[in-house]
């Protein structure tokens, strides 16, 4: 008979909520920076008013018309390369960076 003891205390410590929260916040910061060039910019207000939830679970654009800019594909966007669903544009280009930002932020 063989008995094996495995000490998982280090694994459990890395999985603590505060580490996950730090990882979420890190990826939210990275995603916000990566999405910024795709956010329509007439005067830059939508880009300037973006905030991140304290736990990193959301990025918020705090202008009254930001939802319209985000969802309305038939608008006249004046800045080349910008338009609706800037999250999807950035996600296609930067997903591996976002994964790495989470892992580094969480200390994994």
Task: Produce the secondary structure layout.
Blueprint: H1 9-14, H2 17-35, H3 45-48, E1 50-52, E2 59-61, H4 66-71, H5 86-106
Antiparallel strand pairs: 1-2
Unreliably modeled segments: none
Number of separate strands: 2
How much of the sequence lies in strands comes to 5-15%
Task: For the record, give the distance between the C-alpha atoms at the N and C termini, rounded to a whole number.
Answer: 35 Å
**Sheet/helix structural class:** mainly alpha
Question: Strand-and-helix sequence, N→C?
Answer: HHHEEHH
Helix share, percent: 40-55%
Commentary on this structure:
Strands 1-2 form a two-stranded antiparallel sheet. The chain is mainly α and 108 residues long. The mean pLDDT is 88. A hairpin with a 6-residue loop joins strand 1 and strand 2 (59-61). Helix 2 runs antiparallel to helix 5. The chain has helices at 9-14, 17-35, 45-48, 66-71, 86-106, and strands at residues 50-52, 59-61. The chain has one domain (20-106).
């Amino acid at each position: 008979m063989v008995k094996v003891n495995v000490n998982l205390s280090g694994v459990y410590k890395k999985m603590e909520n505060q580490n996950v929260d730090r990882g979420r916040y890190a990826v939210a910061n990275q995603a916000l920076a990566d999405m910024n060039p795709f956010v329509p910019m007439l005067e830059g207000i939508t880009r300037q008013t973006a905030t991140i939830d304290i736990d990193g679970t959301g990025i918020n654009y705090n202008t009254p018309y930001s939802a319209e800019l985000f969802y309305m594909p038939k608008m006249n966007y004046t800045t080349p390369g910008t338009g609706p669903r800037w999250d999807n544009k950035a996600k296609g280009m930067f997903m591996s960076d976002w994964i790495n930002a989470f892992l580094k932020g969480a200390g994994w």
